[in-house]
Write a structure and sequence with these properties.
The protein folds into four domains: about 300 residues, Rossmann fold (3-Layer(aba) Sandwich), CATH 3.40.50.1820; about 90 residues, no CATH class; about 90 residues, no CATH class; about 150 residues, Methylamine Dehydrogenase, Chain H (7 Propeller). Helices cover about 20% and strands about 35% of the residues. The protein contains 15 helices and 41 strands. The protein has an eight-stranded mixed sheet with strand order 34-35-37-36-38-39-40-41, sandwiched between helices. Helix 3 packs across helix 15. The two termini are about 20 Å apart. The N terminus and C terminus are likely disordered.
């Protein structure tokens, strides 16, 4: 489509006005000719998406590489010998499993003794495929919350964040007649006792935030109608959300609410016998549980208590539970863990008697077990393999058992069992190798960003790379919400991309969580351009080192990472020849009015505030798509059922590229929610489309030439 068609679209739709909720600014079709694509299931928008899908599938699925990539990806995803990751439940080890015979999946359990073998004997608890057929529903399993044998099972229509919740008896393997049942919504629920739950959900008009999350918490009794539930807390409509929390150890029980003011700030309120008590905690703090009789709090900002101790951002502190319950405002905290400038607390969990932490030290992972005794915490390292990424996989609340995954880019993931009481460490499972990693090496390198900050990144490249700019390379990043990117064995990527002689790069950008809260703040709100600068600096560094060249370099990211890729190709389009943009944010001047966007103002700023709109407008990729510029032909994909990041971001990006006469690919999966794939078959198709596109754009043509 040429520029004249864009002008025609503008002129033909100038009289149309897009209605928004009261109190929000109105945008017209003259401002944006593609507002109609914001109607998620509007007939015109769905017809457009279907036509785009047909074009993309017709082109990429006819590529001679597609079938091989799809079959390789599906084989890896459905492999019978992949690790079945488990939780440590009251009656053994529980797992959710999908394969070619269980497309939607089964919830099942086994014993530790059986799990140690090569062919564990599984007992099915709930078959989601059978349930979907019986109820004629498009169910996607979203997990459960259990109290003894009773569980609150979350079921999503097509993979949305909004779920229906139903009470299930995992011993009887059936839904409870007359049990708790909550209709679809974005909601959270916690057990108080066998017959009582705390629920935050949409209770009717005026009970959800601007982002669509609940801010009203109620107590619901068994068999009680929803409209008779007793309100126990009400936040504000401008909040992110509210969620119940319940802490219990032995006979001490504490209940309350976590009011999320925004994505990073919280207010905690306890429900005491004399009424609610607002806790004296910094806003950037999270109550994360109980261990060794102490309440655990993670700090994401420095905290100086008047006349008391000071604590650094990124620390974990603790309070005596009994003292805290009796008088939470006078209880005194003590340090569990305090990071240095290159450390970050990654994960945590608790067993019957121990606290477990995983720590990042210069993006290297280690695990430690803590026990509180005689007034202080005692630390024991878990002797897991070094120079790898360590994650806490499962913990037992009934015993002192735990499991860890250990992984890096070229070594198949392993699963380890550790008994903290006996200090026995055991290798339980090792994932099969899905590609020949002997031909690749991993390097830890650094680029220099525009302001001089050194940005670390991982390069996975062929040993035989010639450093003449000829290696096809995919650069991946995220850089937001304090989320770290760590080494991991990517089975499908290794099979369909690395094994073809290509390279893969992961950038540790400001805005992420690799070095704790300060690293996040350095790429947040007014500083967000630093994230984009870091990503571009890594691309420049790869080209400078002649690892690759603009002809062979592509960028890939999803969600916040999709926004990252959008900024990369609009700010420095000449650096790249491919761009994979998954479930992206893209129109940042309207992100607060799309999906759950209003909940991310703390990360990006608010375009309704002139000063903040100015810094957002400086990078918003949708507005930066302009005539007269050549962009690397992108592949954009999203999901109709994504109720977190609205599909209009990706839709409008594609439509504007079309209006500018720029080439692109667009694919919109109906199901899958923010994952854009609801099952392994859909995931394999997504991978095949992505890597067929990447191969076509970045790799030398196969014999005979590509179509």
């Amino acid at each position: 489509m040429k520029k004249s068609l864009l002008r025609a679209a503008l002129l033909s739709m100038m009289c149309f006005t897009f209605a928004l909720p009261d109190g929000q600014s109105r945008a017209t079709q003259a401002d944006d000719p593609f507002l109609w694509l914001e109607e998620v299931e509007g007939p015109r928008a769905l017809a457009w998406a279907q036509a785009e899908n047909e074009k993309t599938l017709g082109s990429l699925q006819s590529d001679p590489r597609y079938d091989r990539i799809y079959q390789d990806a599906l084989t890896v995803l459905q492999a019978k010998d992949r690790i079945p990751y488990v939780s440590l439940g009251r009656q053994g080890l529980e797992n959710f499993w999908q394969d070619e015979n269980h497309v939607r999946g089964i919830w099942r359990r086994t014993t530790l003794e059986s799990y140690r073998g090569q062919d564990p004997q599984w007992e099915t608890i709930l078959d989601i495929d059978a349930l979907a057929v019986a109820e004629k529903k498009n169910w996607v399993y979203k997990g459960s919350s259990c109290l003894g044998r009773r569980c609150l099972v979350k079921l999503s229509d097509g993979g949305k964040d909004a779920v229906s919740i139903r009470e299930f008896d995992r011993d009887a393997k059936s839904f409870v007649t007359g049990g708790f049942e909550l209709p679809e919504g974005k909601q959270s629920v916690r057990w108080l006792d066998r017959d009582t739950v705390l629920v935050a959900r949409d209770w009717g008009e005026g009970t959800t935030t601007e982002a669509g999350y609940p801010f009203v918490l109620k107590e619901l009794k068994r068999a009680q109608p929803l409209d008779q539930a007793r309100e126990v807390f009400r936040g504000q409509r401008t909040d992110f959300s509210a969620a119940p929390f319940v802490l219990s150890e032995q006979r001490i029980h504490v209940t309350g609410v976590a009011r999320r003011i925004n994505a990073f700030e919280r207010q905690y309120v306890l429900f005491g016998p004399a009424g609610p008590i607002e806790l004296d905690l910094p806003k950037k703090a999270s109550i994360v549980g109980i261990a060794s009789g102490r309440v655990l709090v993670k700090l994401d900002e420095d905290w100086i208590r008047p006349g008391d101790t000071s604590f650094k951002a990124g620390s974990m502190i603790s309070y005596d539970l009994a003292e805290w319950k009796q008088d939470p405002l006078r209880a005194k905290p003590s340090v569990v863990f305090q990071p240095n400038c290159r450390q970050a607390l990654r994960g945590f969990g608790r067993t019957r008697n121990f606290l477990v932490l995983t720590i990042l030290d210069n993006v290297q992972s280690k695990a430690f077990v803590y026990r509180y005794d005689q007034g202080k915490w005692h630390t024991t390292p878990v002797p897991l393999p070094e120079n790898a990424s360590v994650s806490l996989s499962a913990v037992s609340g009934q015993a002192d058992e735990m499991m860890f995954t250990v992984s890096d880019y070229l070594t198949p993931t392993s699963l380890w069992y550790f008994d903290a009481k006996s200090k026995r460490l055991e290798l339980l499972k090792t994932a099969p190798a899905t590609f020949d990693a002997s031909k690749h090496v991993v390097e830890r390198l650094e680029a220099t960003s525009r302001d001089g900050t050194r940005i670390p990144y991982f390069l996975v490249r062929p040993r035989s790379a010639r450093f003449d700019g000829s290696t096809p390379t995919l650069l991946y990043g995220y850089g937001g919400f304090q989320v770290p990117l760590l080494p991991s064995y990517e089975e499908a990527l290794g099979r369909v991309w690395l094994e073809q002689g290509n390279a893969y790069v992961v950038a540790n950008l400001r805005g992420g969580g690799e070095f704790g809260p300060a690293w996040h703040r350095a790429g947040q709100q007014a500083m967000k351009q630093s994230t984009w600068d870091d990503f571009i600096a890594v691309a420049d560094d790869l080209i400078r080192r002649k690892v690759t060249s603009p002809r062979r370099l592509g960028v890939i990211g999803g969600s916040q990472g999709g926004l990252l890729v959008g900024t990369a190709i609009t700010q420095r389009p000449e650096l790249f020849n491919a761009a994979i943009i998954g479930v992206p944010l893209f129109d940042m001047l309207r992100f607060t009015q799309l999906g759950a966007g209003a909940s991310w103002i703390a990360e990006y700023g608010d375009p309704a505030i002139p000063e903040q709109r100015e810094w957002i407008e400086d990078y918003s990729p949708y507005q930066k798509l302009v005539p007269g510029k050549a962009y690397p032909e992108p592949f954009i994909f999203t999901s109709t059922k994504d109720d977190r990041v609205h599909p209009a971001h990706g839709r409008k990006a594609a439509a504007k590229l079309a209006a500018l006469g720029q080439p692109y690919f667009y694919f919109e999966n109906i199901d899958g929610g923010h994952r854009a794939a609801a099952n392994l078959v859909e995931h394999a198709r997504q991978l095949a489309l992505v890597y067929t596109y990447a191969s076509r754009r970045l790799c030398p043509e196969p014999p005979g030439g590509a179509p």
